[in-house]
Each structure stands twice: as structure tokens, then as C-alpha cells.
Design brief:
Elements: H1 2-5, H2 9-13, H3 19-35, H4 40-46, H5 51-59, H6 61-67, H7 69-84
Helix pairs in contact: 3-6, 4-5
Amino acid sequence: MCKAANTTIEALRGRSRSIEVAAVRKVFAVLAVEYFDRRVADVAAFIEKHPGSVSRWLEAPSTAANHNPGLVRRTLELAEADFKAGSPQL
């Protein structure tokens, strides 16, 4: 995900409220939960955010995904390539 978004895990975990970072966090959460079957609590713990916040992001997933269709596509392509290479990590 970070590779596709040209960002870092630290940025996702950070306190930044920039529009770009916030959008990447939301897309990350949507993909992790809906495409990779991760639990909301696990995603929240990984990005060091409150589970309630992550849950709210999932209530309107189309907003984040629709504003970043290229990011979603690139992320899924990279994830598929990692999976085929034997490294199925988000």
C-alpha cells in the first residue's frame, strides 16, 4: 500500500491531517478489511488509530476509493504481485 501511495508506514501511523495522508489511510483501511479480510481492530492497531475511527472510515468506503481509483488499482496490483511471489503482505 505504501509503495503504491508513495508514502511510508510512519506517515499512515502519524498524526498528520493532510488530505492526501488521510485519504491513503482510509483507502488502506477499506482494502485491508474488505479485500484482505483483516479485522477492524487489527487494522486500527497496525496504523495506531482508534478502532472507532477506522470503523467510521468503513461506513462510506466508496468516498475514499472513488477519489483514488488509481491508488486502489495500483495497491491491488502490487498485492497480487507480492502474493504470486510468495510474500502476501499488505
